[in-house]
Amino acid sequence: MIKIGITIGSKYLNELWNCGIHINVLNLYFLLSKIDIFNVQLLSVFDLSESDTSNKHEIFNDINVKFLNDYGKDYDIIIFMGGLPTTEVITEFHNMRKIKLIYYKCGNDFINICEKILWDEKVSENSDDLFTYFDEVWYVPQQEEQNRAYYEMMFKNSIVLKVPFIWSSTFLDYDIKNLKENDKLKLYDTTKEKKVISVLEPNISTTKNCLVPILITEKTYMKKSCKDCIEDLQITNAHKYLTNGHFKTFIKHFDLHKDSKLSVEHRYKLSFILNNYADIIVSHQQFNPLNYLYLDCVYLGFPILHNGSLCKDIGYYYEGYDINDASLKLEDILLNHDKRHSEYLESNKKALYKYNYNENNDLVLCYKNLILDIYNYKNVNKKWCQNTNLLN
């Protein structure tokens, strides 16, 4: 039995959606827990109090979370995914030699460090040195373009490997269950003539923000065929920009704004927005071409327009910054999607399969072999296949 610890960095266990990495951590935990030769445990980088662990989301009811600093030495493998302890703690684990240390990266690290170096005015003068302690560094496929060379240069003593993207509907199903029980569940409405278009980007980086989706929707709204089809453009995660002069200049000349059909909102979780407000989601990214957002939206049955090049078979796809093509696609969604909604559901169900570890046993086996091959250095030669989301 191989004992595997996966770090989680939340100070509270009562909310899944306040940070995307929590979903990543739990997906990996549940996937590895399916493998009978693994004993998998969540290890908190924070020493959680009794109140922290008693007030928790129901998904944690059967998960015993331990404190990394106290119990980390008991594990054969530690996967640092949801948070890092101090450099001293990692150094101690590294110097023991008997524990394999994996750094599983899911974020836009190189873009983040660029933006911090260029724009962070309150940066600490101290530097971190965490690049010499890990046996392997794993990263999700959507981070290839921006991060691979960066990781290979920084983690010179580690095997750097692109690993399969994993997803399941487990977390959304909790919300669906609660909505059903309270008789509040609303499915996508194919009879609704005027649609609310929502933009759900986090708006905290250049990688995923609302500006291109606003341009796409405005260009579509200007078309005579679409003007009466759009009820509202709803920009979430953006309320703080209402006092931003650059943002106000950006939107004030748009017809959507002049016609009072552009609203700027606070942050809400996906299931709440889709269940209560949104009909169509318009998305844009750079250097992040595979997102939970796309998968979650199509699972819940909603049309999403996006430029995620690694998952062109999910939802509706447009290329890069091609706003003209994106507008044509949005026009098609507004005018024709409802006629083919059942076909949309079926095609996306098939597209989700390769990421869904609850259905795809090959994906589970792939991760089993990833873990086992840490010990014989076979992971160095593995290559990710986009068509199958597996390693060759």
Structure description:
The protein has 15 helices and 15 strands. The chain has 392 residues and is an alpha/beta fold. Helices cover 36% and strands 16% of the residues. The strands form 3 sheets. A 7-stranded parallel sheet has the order 3-2-1-4-5-6-7, with helices on both faces. Helix 12 links the parallel strand 11 and strand 12 (304-306). It starts with a strand and ends with a strand. The model has no long low-confidence stretch (mean pLDDT 94). The protein has helices spanning 20-33, 50-54, 68-71, 87-96, 109-119, 144-154, 170-181, 211-221, 245-251, 255-258, 270-276, 292-299, 323-336, 341-352, 361-372; strands at residues 2-8, 38-44, 65-67, 77-82, 100-105, 136-139, 159-162, 195-199, 230-235, 262-264, 280-282, 304-306, 316-317, 384-385, 390-391. The chain folds into 2 domains: 2-168 and 357-391, Rossmann fold (3-Layer(aba) Sandwich), CATH 3.40.50; 170-353, 3-Layer(aba) Sandwich (Rossmann fold), CATH 3.40.50.
